[in-house]
Amino acid sequence: MKRPLSGCRVLDLGIITAGAAASALLADLGAEVIKVESPSYRDPFRAWKSSDPGAAAQLSPFFRFTNRNKTGISLDLKHADGREALLRLVAKSDVVLENFRRGVLARLAIDYTVLRAIRPEIILASISSQGETGPDANYVSFGTTLEAMAGLAWQTGYPEGDPTVSGRDLNYPDQVVAIFAAGMVAAAWRHRCRTGQGAHLDMSQRELTSFLVGEAFGAAGSLPARQGNADPAYALQECFRTVDGTWLALSVLPEQAAALDALATGDGNRAGRVTRWIGARPMAECLTTLAAIGLAVAPVLDGRGVLEDRGQRWGQAIASLEDGAPVKGFPFQLEQAPLSVSRDAPRIGADTAEILQRLAGYSPEDIRRLSVDGAIECATT
Amino acid sequence: MRRPLDDITVIEAVRDDCCLALRLSAALAGRIVADLGAEVVKIEPPTGDPLRRMPPMAGETSALFAFLNAGKRSVVLPRENGFATLRRLVERANALIADAGCDRHLSRAVGAGLPDDEARVAVLIAMLGGDGAPDIPASEFTVLALGGVLNMIGDPERQPLRLGGHQAAYAAGLSAFTGLTAALCGATRAAPEMVRVSLLETAVWLNWKNVAAVATGGEAPTRTGRAADWPVLRCADGWVALVYQDADWPAIRELADNDPHLADPAFATAAGRRPRAGEIAAIVERHLATMTRAEIHDLALHRRLPVGPVASPDDLADDPHFVAREFLATIKAADGHGIKLPRLPVLWNGAGFAPGMVPPLGDGAQQVTT
Fold it and tell me: CA-CA distance, A166 to A148, in Å (whole number)?
């Protein structure tokens, strides 16, 4: 079965999560994704590994998670010959994806105007914190910054408490943008196939984060701030501690409240009665009994618990390499052209020689010279 | 400019008894493709989508419904032969966005009446994924519990917290959008492509770092509240997320008026600061108390510090950056009043996709008869 993005070649200048995960998803959908690094600038994720002896020789797990299904090349874009090699590849590619700080592409003289002159139908997918234009375009941000500036943190938190963010280990805005950006590139690729026209996609993570609380803007002025876990659609929604000391999440629709009241009897308000009822019972009993009366209920799992649930309540989100190593899987799946992981993340410059020969017309002699000059870097095998 | 999906027709049809979360996911995916030019027909029960009555409200209108449905047409199926009518609509459409409980014959019928070279895609959204039937009922909230997201948010000594709004449903809505758009690029084929989306698969995918930490032999991270590396602190007129990298430490010390407590040599390295993050937060917060968010914003922009002032949706309505990028649009709601909505978070060759009107119930009736 032909995969949705087969025939689409992507030069992936993406780093860390937002850019690299977006292009990983494009690779899963069948695009040929070439990760472009530089002898002087690696994807910072390569360095995120443990200090254990032996770890130094291995790929960082986070890098492996986010860069499987890609080939890898290393070109020094600050070197005239390295930049020339990139531009020769641009002439044979369909998409360039990047999430550098604003201004970097222009400084490297590889901005949209330059790319389009070489390849008129190129799609440049730019993922940035704040977007290409506007007074905050150069505002440096991480995911947490964006949650604060986009309106999400203001709505997240305990009632009467401080605004709250998803934090560094989750970093919500960086994850969601990868899904959205992959979808926008697919839309641009389809447009290009129909019309022959390329596009520059200017995607702002702050805007996406605001878009994902989009209903708040229409109701601004009357919108309640932080409501903890409560939701107006539910009679009760909260986490409760079981007798085991673990947390249980419970959502009770208005029409389900009577059934819950029949179970958690006694004095006081509903939340108090449920707190006592759950607090006197182990997790397993709570889950069985509450699910039996139709309530949405679940244990609050940590990463270990989530992993143990693999194959039960979820199965696609994490994939495995041939050696069994876990890597990023898929946020959705296609029945006829399934997304799959077929290759490990590339070592630095693993495919430089092969790709420059196959796509950019360099001879083995040229490649040796460029390598000696420091314009490119080839993996030592 | 021609919109990229202007040749595509999409039917958005969840079952009448479909749960709230799946309604939200399907509607978000529909909203995005509508902005990108697809003709999106939303099937509603005779009493209207329950989202039409869901808060937050803008006067008599649901801001939630308006946000999710701008640019679509609304169709109420006739009381008699409703399913046959729906099937006819689906057969003439390129795509169906539905909940996973959708009738199998309906999802297989997508585009059956179209020429052979037209793309055919059904997107089916479920709460949980995996191979088996769901063993427990689920909500957005319990999906965040099962995906390990709740565990990461809030104070360690208090109950876990959800993210504000409808993140579990909307993130899955993004998955549905991307799955649909990619599948539309695929080769045309005899049978429609089925895109399987679940709220839980998406939540686990988003939370991969926590799963990766465990899968590669580490400890499972958990929420750290105010002791987080990057805490949210009070300032003179609100809050600010104190985000910084190692290289920013001198600038953070300056932000705190070079407080002598921060001169502690133990704070000179990230490793030295991490176990005492709560202490640092308290020191910096004392100095932030004299600064407004606007002052912190300007300083951060100037010094290239990733510190983030906390904005409310009210604040953002006239945020100069959002105004310059025309991010918020005012469109006409069903009751004729103007309502503020974000445009799609992308500029295509510098131009935004303006959201369409919010459909009154049944405004697309002619879609059924023609």
Answer: 10
